[in-house]
Amino acid sequence: MSRSDAPVFPPVPLSAEAAPFTPLVADSWRLGSSSDVDKQFSRCAAKLRALRADSSQLREQLNLLLDQLLSENYTSFLPFQDMCSLLKHVSCLVPLSQEHLVIKLCQLVHHLLNQLKVIMDERTLDVLLTYTTSALKVCSTWTHSDVLLALSTIVYGNGPQCHQHLRELLGEDGVLLQYSSPSQPNVELRRVALTCMANICLRIPGQAPLDDQYRSVSFRVFLKTLHSPKPPDTDELFYCMVIQAALKGLQCCLSGGKWKFVGEELGSALAALKRLMFQGTPGVNVEWPTVLYPAPLPQYEGLPAAKPAETPQSSEPPKDNKKRKSRGKEKKMSSEESRADDEEEVNCKTVPSLQKGGGREGGRGEGESLSKPSGPSLYPSWKRVSSDSEFSDPEGSAQSKLRLYNARIRQGALHCLLAVVKGLEKRTLYGYWSSFIPDSPIGGPPPLTLITIILKDPSPKVRACALQVLSAMLDGSRQFLAVAEDTASPRKSYTPFSFLLANAIRELHRALTLALLAETSHQTLTQVIKCLAHLVANAPYHRLRPGLLSPLWKQMRPYVRHRDVNVRVSVLTLYGALVTTQAPLPEIQLLLRQPEGNNSSTGSFTPQDSVLSWRQRDGESTPPTPVKPSQRSSQTHSPHVLRTPEEVDSAPPWLLQLCVALVTQPREDQSDSEGAGTEGGAALEPSPVRLEALQYKLPNTCLRMMCITVLLGLTYSENYLVKTAAVRALGVYILFPCLREDVMFVADTANTILAALDDRSPNVRAKAAWSLGNLTDALIVNMESVGVDFQEELSDMLLLKMLQAATRASADKDRVKSNAVRALGNLLHFLRQSQLTRSAFQRPLEDAVLALVKTVQSEATMKVRWNACYALGNAFRNPALPLDSAPWSGDAFSSLCHVVSSCKNFKVRIKSAAALAIPANRGCYGDSKRFSCVWRSLAKALENSEDTNDFFEYRYSDSLRHTLSHALLHLLSVSQSQDMPSLEASLAGEEGRNIKEHLIKYLRAEERGGEGAEEEKEAGGDSVTPQQRIRGLQQTLIKLKELEAEEEGREEEERSKEMVVNFLEDLLQTCKEP
Fold first, then answer.
1. Which of 79, 170, 807, 872 has the smallest C-beta neighbourhood within 10 Å, fewest atoms?
2. Where is there biased composition of kind Polar residues (predicted)?
3. Are 485 and 499 in contact (CB under 8 A)?
4. How many CB atoms lie within 10 A of CB 936?
């Protein structure tokens, strides 16, 4: 070859970031671009299509052409239709008797379908399925591995379309069941069969799920595989591949639609997943259970718990651990994020720097669950490597590969656990919390939980998966964690359940804080901060001893300058959760008022400090300097600038200044993790300005107008994350008194939110609905504080658009619907008589009420139905609504009557009962027939108020009885003479004695000790003393005595009235007795 024939390569600068050198295959450069490969494929494909079954040299030609097609890597060439036609034609040419050709055809099918993602039509799918299933019956066993590999590619995501062959594959004696059985001696066949079953169960988004019959069969096979021990004389690596395939299949089953566990399937699956979460972890040598059983949740605090009383732990690590702390020498981990999957798991030679208490052990010893360490060290035992030579020999390479496979198993088990958590009802999941989340403070041996993985696992991907599972468990757990409390002194006789939950929250704080210090992977660090945000958003800090949030607040301050954009955004999300905690806690208010540099003397340090000042140019000094106008730092002013006390007090909180700077000022440079190819929407930081319910004044007028202008503009960003955050921020701003009374700002915000409600992103629509709910809340506040003037200034057309948009949104996803119905209730309450009588409002008004009725009666989540009942009650507060004559009013009352007596969720029943007690006069209830229906429904609901076996509902039973009793007395207070016969029929018999018993308790205030007591004012509509209730009953008695019956039916009504009066007099006398 002459010098002129040699290829010319562009010069490549030598740098650490340069791609590694890869030698070219001989003569491969001569082939030129991928178009040459495509042309070669087209030539081979044309020759194949020209072949006929009766050709004399068919076998030789097929063998040659198949070899040529298998020898290349293809990119894109023939259309999918031509590809399908080719595969069908070749399958007709290769007889099942020619097993070598069968193998090559199966390899070609796998090669093309897997590499080019060919979408097959139904005919091609059926032809290839028939061919491969026939091959499994006819061909020798040695061919079945390749046949099953092709079959796994064919059925990938096509499970529902394979219905004609499913019985043959997954029936009682199906071939896949035979090969996937734990008794199958050929491990490779077993692995490929499990992969086939997993691909059959895989559900493509928008596709119908696999039939439950075959999904259940596959689930049991996968679960049995996970519980089966490794066969003797089986290679460890091959067995790991079998477990990986079973985990993949289990995840596909759980993610392929709604799943119901039968019997002990849930406990068995959780036990297997927990064991595999620690697969290959050195030092873990415990006897794993085959089934996990839910821990019984106590119904009352008085029941003794299984654990002895324990002293509540401090949020700080114990003193004896401080002796083991070591600053260590910081080591860089910049390559950890850029490695491929294999390299990331195999090459764990670099040990992260562990600063002040930030070891992977989390400050603990190994305990009884882990074998004893060889000596005191902050590094996990499996992360210490003596020398690089351990990986140079074949044995070391095999061990490295085994560590990689074990890490993949741990990751797959956590993915399955995440699918279980997302698909399981929260109340069912709570029983298994103690198996995955520690609920005891430091002192005893550490259990093996998700925290163990987060703090100790050497793989950043596995740690990130564990954090995702923990975040999913914490998300939506506010109702469960609301029981936690440790403000009182612990009882010495037993440990209350509330105290155990408080311990769990403190343990999570401690562990996640240590993970925050020790984590070096940016992706995993983002998950740590997100997990902390879920914890902060759901934990009841007002019931816990102070001191948990201040250290976290100060520790997060340096991370707002982190080089990774995802870390910075998650930090803002966490700060948003912190400032919204119980709106907000005094502890948070104090932190907001502190100057930004106030934590410089705390001595806190994170391993990431070396990269925090990423905005500064190389060679600049590290001490902070005042920010120049042309440069932007995450600090709006230097902490070294001296300020007078008056300036400090009058300055806006540093967090607000930070958010304004992040939104309005351009970035100086992009970080390496963001890349240079980002779109213009990412030139500014995302703006999750979640400053809800803060007690402080907004900035001065100029800065306030700038914030508003910027936010209104950001709602039209093409980046949905920016749009979501901006729309939510407007929903926060509308609650500030200085803005909510500004009609122009209300109108601008409303128009912006209405545009966002039509966005294609469900996240944007959900935040827009939430902001619309807040805006309509502000309308009600203005109506009560400002008065009619504000109502008259607001445009009628804008109100009509809001009503119609909220009605449409009530048919959206549940997370949009829950706030849409809240907005409907506020709007129906806000509308004036002049608007309701206009013809333009008649149809939208009816549609809005019917949307609420439909939501109340639907199978939506309980939160949505709860909000819909509340919205109907809110609408009933508007005296201008024609409840007595409107055709839709009957449906509204009927829906509330139905759920108050039949809904399983007590909070929904409480809200429906409260709504039925809101109409202020008798005319709103319609005729005597409707009034009687409302009374009977409330009486029936009171009789059945204890009929539940669910502790999470039972704890609201006192609040339900309170609300129902209040509603019944309200109906008595507005009743008229025509209602007396129906009231007599109810109060005269056994039902009347039951009602009387509950009314006595209500009037004496004996039924307010339940969990729902804090909602008394909202749920029951009143928060009055027993003396006031007695006076109200006396006034009702006086009113009933003065009632005069109508001429028609006078005697019957008088007789009934006398009975009702006697009932109330007897009730009043009983309540006055000591």
1. 79
2. 596-613, 628-638
3. yes
4. 16
